[in-house]
Amino acid sequence: MVTAVATSTHSSFLNEVVRETPFGERVRSCIQCGTCGGSCPNGAEMQYTPRGIINLINAGQREKVLSANTMWQCVSCYFCTSRCPHNIPITDVMYTLKRMAIREGYGKDSDAPALAKAFTYYVDKYGRSFEMGLATRYHLLNRPIAAMKMGPMGLSMFKRGRMALTPSKIRNIGQLQAIINKARELGGAR
Amino acid sequence: MKYAFYPGCSLEVNAAAYDVSVRAVCQALGVELEELDDWNCCGATEYFSQDELTACAVIARNLAITKCDQLTAPCAACFLNLKKVDTLMSEHADMNGKINEALAAGGLSYKPGTVQIRHLLDVIYTDVGEERIRAAVKKPLNGLRVAPYYGCQVVRPFGGFDDPEYPTKMDELFTWIGAEVVDYPVKGHCCGGHMTQISEPEAYELIRRLLHSADEYQADVIACLCPMCQLNLDAYQSGVNGHFGTNYNLPIVYFTQLLGLAFGLAPKQLGFGKELVAAEPVIAAKVGV
Questions:
Q1: Which residues constitute the domain of residue A116?
Q2: C-beta atoms of B193 and A75 within 8 A
Q3: Domains of chain B, with CATH numbers?
Q4: What is the ipTM of this complex?
Q5: pLDDT at A147 over 60
Q6: Which residues from B are below 8 Å from A179, CB to CB?
Q7: Which of A115, A131, A171 sits opposite B194 (nearest CB)?
Q8: Which of the 8 DSSP states describes residue A32?
Q9: Same domain as A63, residue A130
Q10: Given CB atoms, is A78 within the 8 Å cutoff of chain B?
Q11: Model confidence over A150-189: pLDDT tens digits?
């Protein structure tokens, strides 16, 4: 059980999270009601529920938060966001924590950072996602045993025409890449 | 009724059954879909984990190239992302400025609120409506027990056309085409999303809860409105059975496939046969097509 709320609302870590999350200042208004944790379909798998993680953010516990598995267990179902009585964008806070953790080299126990990286690689390159590419670039490289187990299922998908061997690519890929490069420059890749 | 159509990457291959059935049903209902020329991926949930401003700019390019005042997306994640960015740009001046600065590097701009973003269920339910849908029915799906499955991202938090906790619009739609609607408690719960790609045990548990509930309420099929939900419940169903020692055999179809059947279209025209848990046996037994 984590306790320590109002004492450190000026923590620099809290300020970082607020800065990186649109409408993140609402994190300061958390009343620890626990609606988010009680609504989370995957809360049982988390070291700290969303309520607990927000408490730790408010308490400035950077290391505990970024090394937790909480954000990697988030499935983006938005139950917490939709139910929060103070309209805290909790799902977006989870995205912020994912980005911070990836940037700072946390999240080594999860395959989620590798999936995010492989997925965005294809979007940047072709303008479209590419499932067969993910199967090789992500699954085979990061989780070969699980990938082998999924082989028969992949084959069934392929037989039914649900897997393409080549990616589809947009025509104005140069335009998309110019937008991406500018956004990276403006956002400092955050 | 004319709409810009954003199919999204899944509909190109993995959810081809959704693509063909969406197009066939819209044609039957007089809903004109004009595919957005040269649309790009919405980034799903993954891009937001890497880089938020870029994720938003990538999504916003699609809004910037939309020429219609209404844009419809059949995929839950695409719908959420398009709507999320439009909403963010409306409410957050700083993000709006930066996103437009990025768009300008590609010679584009977007004024938030210009394009109305609608999920296809909303278009069919609200704009086509009960009377015209009932009138289009040639082969009512009498006796087929359908469990409507909404999942997360169509109804939460941006949906706006249905209840975020206990949606009912697809339920109503199925009563209009004569199906028997299964009212089960987890229809707005999560399918696990990308968790099937990261850690199967957690995903299997989330999928099991849905299959268990639909099965307990004696559903013949589960109908969904999202390619990720369909993929998780269909392609990973045998994985769930192996993991828990269960023997679920529940076909997972798209809501548009069932509408198409009721409108008298042939199963092959609607992409039946692409699902891993075969739907045609139970459809043939209950509906006779």
A1: 112-187
A2: yes
A3: 2-119 (1.20.1050.140), 131-287 (3.40.50.11810)
A4: 0.95
A5: yes
A6: 57-58, 61, 102-103, 105-106, 108
A7: A115
A8: -
A9: no
A10: yes
A11: 888 989 999 999 998 899 999 999 999 999 999 999 986 5
Q: Are residues A134 and A97 in the same domain?
A: no
Q: Are residues A77 and A123 both part of a single domain?
A: no
Residue in B41, B57, B88 closest to A128 by CB: B41
Are A6 and A55 spatial neighbours (Cβ–Cβ below 8 Å)?
no
Of A69, A103, A137, the domain-final residue: A103
Give the C-alpha separation, B189 to B210, whole Å: 8
Residues A43, A96, single domain; the answer is yes
pTM flag (> 0.90): yes
List A residues 104-163 in contact with B (Cβ-Cβ < 8 A).
110-113, 115-117, 119-120, 122-123, 127-129, 131, 134, 138-139, 146, 153, 156-157, 160-163
Task: Judge whether B90 and B60 are in contact, CB under 8 Å.
Answer: no
CATH of the domain at A53: 1.10.1060.10
Is residue A2 one of the residues assigned to a domain? no
Q: Are residues A128 and A83 in the same domain?
A: no
State whether A98 and A125 are in the same domain.
Answer: no
Q: Is residue A159 part of a domain?
A: yes
Is the model's pLDDT at A24 over the cut of 80? yes
